[in-house]
Amino acid sequence: MLTSSSHSQPDPATSSKVGSPSFPAPLSHFEPHPTEALDRAAAELKANKLAWAELPIRQRISLLEAVQDAYAAVAERWVAASVEAKGLRPGTFAEGEEWIIFVMGMRALNHLKVSLEGIEKTGRPPIPGGLRTDAAGRVVARVFPAHWSDRLLYRGITADVWMAEDTTVEDVKTDQAWAYHQPSDGQIALVLAAGNLSILPMLDSLDRLFVKKHVVLLKTNPVSDYMDPILADALHPLIEAGYLRMVRGGAAEGKYLTRHEAVDSIHMTGSDKTFRRIVFGEDGAHSDGRPEEPFAKEITAELGNVTPLIIVPGPWTRDDIRHKAVQVASWMAINASFNCLSPRIIVQHAGWPLRDAFLTELENVLANTPPRKAYYPGAKQRHQRFVEGHADVRQLGQAEGEQLPWTLIRNVNPDNQDDMVFRSEVFCSVLSETALNAESPIEFIERAVEFANRQLWGTLIVSLFVHPRSLADPEIGAAIEGAIADLRYGTVCLNLRGEYGYYPLLSPWGGAPGSPLNDVQSGLGVINNPLMFKTSQKSIVRGPFRQWPDPFLVTANHTLGFGKALYEFERRHSLTKLPKVLWSALRG
């Protein structure tokens, strides 16, 4: 059954007016599968779900290794298809970005293999940095760095997973890999895939297959169904064995499958509007938020975010400003800002003398960053709607044809609670900025936390930028640690842009737990959970203020070479391949 607890949230009466967009129906590259094909796919999975649940661990590892080989075999086709569909220029930073996205699939496969081998040996996946109980009494798992290469390539970056209150270290160990320690008759998980990032259908399917031991009925997204033949080749070993089926279709096919008698659980990535239609039906919920009929299937969802970047005032130099402006521009540029973790709102101190200098430098970097094709449905209309009604709008870069300019909306009034930049995810190349009055940095931190928790839609991920000298101040350092604990988000990044909260693929990914169904915010449950934690609550990812090397930047000249070299290394962790990766990273 779908369950959720309640906590302080925006007024449910306004839920239908905020959140992620209702995307227009995209043009599909293929005809949707007819009902008969959907039924046949479900019947085939139903016949095999018990065999998958009981499959010995060694056979499961062998099957995963076969997927690794199949995935590697489609690398060039995968990246080329993404570059063409998104209108990217081959040989540029943007193509390098697609290689890095492809690397995430190999990282996920590698992580799962290590976990399965750990289960085979000890009964549970190994936790790279072990478990500890911190000063606040919570159990913490250090999950990154996971490999010696992580320490070289991502210097100073760590990721911790906080477990639920009143959980002990022994509880975590006992519950880890729970699906491998309890009998099961098998289940069919319906995965309603995202269309924005080519790797997401694969990542979500792997999580359900190997973490929960469910067979998967994957309905791909019409936005990216050009990838279907390549994805089918990559996942061919699982398809051939009868544990995965891929089907095509839009909203009608998705609705049919969510109600299908063979489907036991659902995971979706997309809009909260779609989630409401699944749970509450076409007519939505009653005024009290209850569905007209109880929704009997387990459902998890990742539904987007108005992602905040909180900049704490401090003794930044001009070089610091430049460094961080390049990071934010790069964060915004990735996938043309069609990511749930793309930055949406910068929160600054109104009295910080460097506030305008930072924004001006950000504008300079964006103006020199090539615009991207607005390939996601409805992007131009959303862009226009967000720009209208704001006085200080800066459109940057020479956008042409299907492209959109990088757009910065400055000085949004923080007291206007109904402003759409706070209440709705734009899901295109628009970034806004607002400023809060405060008597001190500590008061600003407290106000920024309250603002993010109460006024911004979503609970997925938040980033804070804090100068090292500020962190070294005992009072400010303590205030930051308090903010990390109090921010109601599934992932909190300190001095890192948002993609570092996702890219390691070792910390569970999802909205903060506890949102009620009638105001679900960024969703329910988690995905990307290769360490198979059962009681994770929040992921904390920390990095150096001045990260180096950092090849994931729009100003880097060798991102393409880095992306290809990184893929070759992730394919086979070999010392002979690492120098090329490091050389590409260091060249910038």
Task: Outline the structure in words.
The chain has 588 residues and is an alpha/beta fold. It has three domains: 37-125 and 181-302, Aldehyde Dehydrogenase, Chain A, domain 1 (3-Layer(aba) Sandwich), CATH 3.40.605; 307-502, Aldehyde Dehydrogenase, Chain A, domain 2, CATH 3.40.309.10; 557-588, no CATH class. Helix content is 39%, strand content 15%. It has 20 helices and 19 strands. The chain has an eleven-stranded mixed beta sheet, with helices on both faces. Strand 9, helix 12 (318-333) and strand 10 form a beta-alpha-beta unit. Helix 3 crosses helix 4. It is globular and about 65 Å long. The termini are far apart.
Q: Summarize the main sheet.
A: 11 strands, mixed
Structural class: alpha/beta
CATH superfamily of the largest domain: Aldehyde Dehydrogenase, Chain A, domain 1
Helix content: 25-40%
The level 1 CATH classification of the largest domain is Alpha Beta
Number of helices: 20
| Portion in beta strands | 15-25%
Given the C-alpha coordinates, what overall shape results?
A: globular
> What's the architecture of the largest domain, going by CATH?
3-Layer(aba) Sandwich
Low-pLDDT parts are: 1-16
Number of domains: 3
Write the layout of secondary structure elements.
Layout: H1 35-54, H2 57-73, H3 75-85, H4 93-122, E1 131-133, E2 139-144, H5 148-153, E3 158-163, H6 169-175, E4 188-192, H7 200-210, E5 215-219, H8 228-234, H9 236-241, E6 244-247, H10 251-258, E7 265-269, H11 272-280, E8 298-302, E9 307-311, H12 318-333, E10 343-349, H13 355-367, E11 372-373, H14 379-387, E12 393-396, E13 403-404, E14 406-412, H15 420-423, E15 430-436, H16 441-455, E16 461-465, H17 468-472, H18 474-486, E17 491-494, E18 523-524, E19 536-542, H19 559-571, H20 578-587
Helix pairs in contact: 2-4, 3-4, 4-7, 4-19, 12-13, 16-18, 19-20
